[in-house]
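If you are new to this repository, start here. Below is one unmodified record pulled from the training split, so you can see the exact layout before writing a loader.
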Amino acid sequence: MANIGFISLGCAKNQVDCERMMYRVQEAGHTVKEDIVGSDVVVINTCGFIDSAKSEAIDYILQTAQLKAEGLVGKILVTGCLSQRYQGDITKEMPEVDGILGTGSYTEIVPAIEALLEDKAVSDFGSIDAPEQETGRIVTTPEHYAFIKIAEGCDNRCAYCIIPKLRGKYRSRQLDDILYEARLLADSGVKELMVVAQDTSRYGTDFPEHKRLLPELLRRLCEIEGLHWIRVHYVYPDEIDDELIEVMASEPKIVKYLDIPIQHCNSKILKRMNRRGDGDFLRQLLAKLRVKIPGLVIRTSLITGLPGEGEEEFKELCDFLRETKMERVGAFAFSPEEGTPAAEMEHVDAETAQKRAEIVEMLQSEIMDEWSASMIGKTLEVLVDGYDEEAEQFYGRTYADSPDIDGRVWIASDEPVQEGEFVMVTIDGCREGDLSGYVVEER
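And here is the target side for that same chain:
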């Protein structure tokens, strides 16, 4: 039996894939190490979505290769989106890599590792359209929160996005399998469950009934004892219907937080990018959500420099931000990904796209500061995430904050608080996207 180390890069969905591989490896009798040093095989589960993600993955591969050269690790196995995207190039360009698995071959992780241990070559690329195979996980998030992936793949075919070619068509997991996994997570101490997929809003539409099942799934998740917060990510705007809004508004366990990737607001650009709905539709949808779900916090992602974006279109995007005042916004410069229609379209240079992304970030910082200031004096429920040794203070999150991508609440308390505990905090300050406050008696 061997020692196996894992490095997971990219999104939460990738993290779940890695956790499933870790479970398979452990079930086969191997040891899953927390530290890669001393590993007989290091598995690097990569992201290959945009240039920055590709660069990060390559850096990690090269750093691990240096450890290999120093005799601190054994074989290197690269999995995930980067290997799927550059199947013939990785081992050619980086001979330190001993094996590669595509995104359709996660289930072959154990045979791949055992082949590498016997000094055999590994290059396996199974069907990216195959149904998801159910398996356990070794959860790598803190005990009190976890992600649950409800589907794989994507059918949206946005002009700028390579994901369908890396992850295949949309495949929903069976509802009973998701609920079973959610109960196991709740029984293990998970209090916050984050629902993820490439597109959560289309859950169930690939089944024979072609029915949107996300509202039903959310209702059923709310029935699970032990779960206190349920957070929904990656809900596409054109699939948000009245039933989903009603569930979001009425179920107390579902935090009033929606991650809605809109990418842009200009109607012409949205059409060129094969996005459904136009700017007016987005404005009406956001206004409707504000009315129907009081206190809703909206997270989105925007891309600057998309094909068709001139100064006028960029000004429209900035005006849209000022008008809608979405609380959480991530801005990214357009990355022309080879193999996508958008890469062949005329667009501004990378420097201009990056400058525009920085302008959006500055504008959004003002909007965030305004929202944070509006929280001062309010008493909010906060989930304690941990203790910062340098700051000598506990920190946590409100309903408005998803872990690792949003802000924190710095917690002052006369009595000790514990990681994973919910406390009521009266907010008395804000700085650079973070809130601060003190614990009140009510728990």
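Two things worth knowing about this chain: The longest strand covers residues 379-388. The chain has a mean pLDDT of 95.
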